Amino acid sequence: MLDTFKLLQIAFPYITWPLEWRRLYTLIENCFHDTKITIVQWNRPPDEWVKINTDGSALNNPGIIGAGGIIRNKNGELILAFATPLGEGTNNQAEVEAAILGLSWCVNLRYDKVILEVDSQLRW
Fold first, then answer.
1. Pairing between strand 114-118 and 50-59?
2. H or E element: which one contains 99?
3. For the chain, what are the domain ranges?
4. What is the percentage of the chain residues whose pLDDT exceeds 90?
5. Which of 123, 97, 117, 2 lies closest to 50 in space, CA to CA?
6. Whether 62 contacts 90, CB under 8 Å
7. Percent of the chain beyond pLDDT 70?
8. Listing from the earlier edge strand, what are the strands of the sheet with 63-72?
């Protein structure tokens, strides 16, 4: 029981977990997973353009964050992919850092016609 309790506390630190099995079972039984389905499609950039798709993530929020992305040409061919840990921060910091890293790579590779796609719901 103690191991299960510790695991739940680490995975879900924002929930106050009961120590008794019956209360724990009732709490878990009443939980539900909110599933949202979104169609995702990669659209080609125009001729002479490249497209960057980036993402940032956080283990807990705030917590350990990381970023990654991919740069592709109009045919969808890989130009560059990257992934890196970013230390501590929030999910929003990770999203912004991922975009900055992707754009920095484009500057370094001398691409000046760039489309940036992110999944962040922050308003830029």
1. parallel
2. helix 91-108
3. 1-34, 50-118
4. 58
5. 117
6. yes
7. 93
8. 78-89, 63-72, 50-59, 114-118
Tell me the pTM.
0.68
Mean pLDDT (the chain, rounded):
87
What CATH number should be reported for the domain whose range is 50-118?
3.30.420.10
Q: In the prediction, which pLDDT does 123 show?
A: 64
Q: Are strands 50-59 and 63-72 parallel, antiparallel or unpaired?
A: antiparallel
How far are the Cα atoms of 9, 10, 18, 21 from residue 3, in angstroms, in the given order? 10, 11, 13, 13
- Name the pLDDT band for 7 (thresholds 50, 70, 90): confident
Can you read off the two tokens belonging to residue 70?
């991919």
Using the predicted structure, report yes or no on whether residue 37 has a pLDDT greater than 60: yes
Which DSSP string do the residues of 8-75 spell out, in sequence order? HHHH-TTS---SSHHHHHHHHHT-------------PPPTT-EEEEEEEEEETTTEEEEEEEEEE-TT
Which amino acid makes up residue 82? F
In single-letter form, the type of residue at position 93 comes to Q
Tell me the two tokens of residue 92.
């929003």
